[in-house]
């Protein structure tokens, strides 16, 4: 049975993540156990399962967490998103909520910053193959203007992943760039598109 799912952070003062729509028998919002965040979550379907990623609450380490939906009305227990290097586990962190998309048989994630410092405006990416995450990549080391005061948005289009984002503080244009699995296009602005917040992105057919 196909169903739309909406997930969201609660109202001011409520850092629980809520979800609705996964069951026509009980379509009202329900709190997801163990999922609490200072920002809204991201959703994507990968390998036939619904994944949700989100940042931890204010006052705690800015760790990103991931859990999945089993299709029977239950989300798995949240797990921190980590990557391995030199026999050590490294936590992936962000100062905003992440973005997710499925691309090239991987779950692709982009997020702003790698610490809890709001001044860290770099955009990073990482990929998940169903077993492990790749090391985060600072996209600013690959192309210019990969910095934002808010989290980016992702969508897959014409065999590429497209990312849109608002510039840094004081730079309000919306930027976009495409990734073909190997390299990124040179970022460009959308003429006349300016915003004080991050954009949303979707493919329309």
Walkthrough of the structure:
With 205 residues, this protein is an all-beta fold. The protein has a domain at 6-141. 0% of the residues lie in helices and 44% in strands. The protein contains no helices and 17 strands. A hairpin with a 6-residue loop joins strand 15 (160-166) and strand 16. The radius of gyration is 17 Å and the shape is globular. The mean pLDDT is 88.
Walk across the major sheet and give the strand order: 4-5-6-7
Question: Ranges with pLDDT <50 over ≥5 residues?
Answer: none
Q: Residue share in helices?
A: under 10%
The shape is globular
Taken as a percent bin, the fraction of beta residues is 35-45%
What radius of gyration results from the CA coordinates? 17 Å
Describe the structure in brief.
By secondary structure, the protein is mostly beta strands.
